[in-house]
Design brief:
By secondary structure, the chain is α/β, with parallel strands linked by helices. The chain folds into two domains: 93 residues, Leucine Dehydrogenase, chain A, domain 1 (Rossmann fold), CATH 3.40.50.10860; 124 residues, NAD(P)-binding Rossmann-like Domain (Rossmann fold), CATH 3.40.50.720. It is 42% helix and 15% strand. The strands form three sheets. A six-stranded parallel beta sheet has the order 1-11-8-7-5-6. Helix 2 crosses helix 10. The chain starts with a strand and ends with a helix. The model has no long low-confidence stretch (mean pLDDT 97). Bound molecules: nicotinamide-adenine-dinucleotide. Nicotinamide-adenine-dinucleotide binds next to helix 10.
């Protein structure tokens, strides 16, 4: 078997086209979607992510603001910036790029973002709403994975879904969204005993560990859907996922590549969340 590719670039392009049309209609009605991204310091990977986010916003016709702050920014200065953006009615989404320099508390900064502008979905009230089955903002990466599964026509009701990696930004919200879609979910972490046995039961396997190529074809159930969230930079400078693509594609029915899989979908769902924030703010006003 050679798996079919779930093409995140192509799926993203069609979703972004629809988003741009909705943004144009909102702009014509005097409600141009606005996203503010705050970047503290000079982390090279963060600079690339932020650049991609801002450029995707501009292409979709959003207002986008990049607020760069120096690496020695104080907590008070960062909180003041968040407060200013909370009060700015032209800004519907606020994203503080993580990780922050070590002297800053990312928890306190995220909690300072108005929850109705928290387009990353990391605020505890948004995590709680997701947990109780009434999500406001779904965190962008797991939301993107759900969109890929939906657009590929994967039936999740009663499916065995296994998520490897249990971070607050990917694994845990991913498990919640799969559960809400009717899957039976197993959430694994670095302490899991016999990871292979869990993987081999999965109709849908989502991997988000940051361990390059750790899931190999022999760990995958024949015909499974394999979603690789991992982004790892190899010694030769190339990117690879947490799944060993070459062996996995011989066993799976569907698989996402790295790059060109989940990555572009994450940014697309950031646009989607910002749009949803504008549409909700219209209803509220
Ligand atoms: P994290 O380091 O916060 O969490 C990793 C999780 O994996 C932990 O729960 C840990 O227990 C688990 N884990 C680690 N080694 C394991 C092992 N051997 N077996 C089982 N579980 C193991 O990472 P994160 O922020 O969730 O990111 C995970 C990966 O996803 C990284 O490669 C990151 O770059 C990538 N990522 C990609 C996107 C995207 O847009 N595609 C977005 C966010 C993160």
């Amino acid at each position: 078997m050679t798996a079919q590719i779930i093409d995140g670039v192509a799926l993203s392009a069609s979703i972004r086209e629809q988003i741009a049309q909705r943004a144009a209609a909102l702009t014509a009605a005097g409600r141009r979607p606005g996203l503010a991204v705050v970047l503290v310091g000079e982390d090279p990977a963060s600079q690339v992510y932020v650049r991609n986010k801002v450029s995707a916003c501009e292409k979709a016709g959003f207002k986008s603001e990049l607020h760069r702050m120096p690496a020695d920014t104080t907590q008070a200065a960062l909180l003041a910036k968040v407060d200013e953006l909370n009060k700015d009615s032209s800004i519907h989404g606020i994203l503080v790029q993580l990780p922050l320099p070590a002297h800053l508390s990312s928890h306190d900064v995220i909690e300072a973002i108005a929850s109705e502008k928290d387009v990353d979905g990391f605020h505890v009230s948004n995590a709680g709403l997701l947990m109780t089955g009434k999500p406001l903002f779904r965190p962008c990466t797991p939301y993107g994975v759900m969109k890929m599964l939906e657009l590929t026509g994967i039936n999740l009701r009663g499916a065995e879904a296994v998520v490897i990696g249990a971070s607050n930004i990917v694994g845990k919200p991913q498990a919640m969204l799969l559960l809400q879609a009717g899957a039976t979910v197993t959430l694994c972490n670095s302490k899991t005993k016999d990871l292979k046995a869990h993987c081999q039961r999965a109709d849908v396997l989502v991997v988000a560990t940051g361990r390059a190529k750790m899931i190999t074809g022999d760990m995958i159930k024949p015909g499974a859907v394999v979603i690789d969230v991992g982004i790892n930079r190899m010694d030769d400078g190339k990117l690879c996922g947490d799944v060993d693509f070459d062996s996995a594609k011989e066993v799976a029915a569907w698989i996402t590549p790295v790059p060109g899989g989940v990555g572009p979908m994450t940014i697309t769902m950031l646009l989607q969340n910002t749009l949803e924030a504008v549409e909700r703010s219209e209803v509220a006003s």
